Input
Amino acid sequence: TEDMVIAILRDEEGHRRLFEGFLREYEAEGRT
Output
């Protein structure tokens, strides 16, 4: 069970990074 929790948390972190990167790119394009 612990392995699953760690995997989910790690996945969640990756999604957050992807989302933040997407937002930054979107904002940068909007300003141009």
Summary: Residues 1-32 form one domain. The chain is about 95% helix and 0% strand. The two ends are 47 Å apart (CA to CA). Residues 16 and 22 are 10 Å apart (CA to CA).
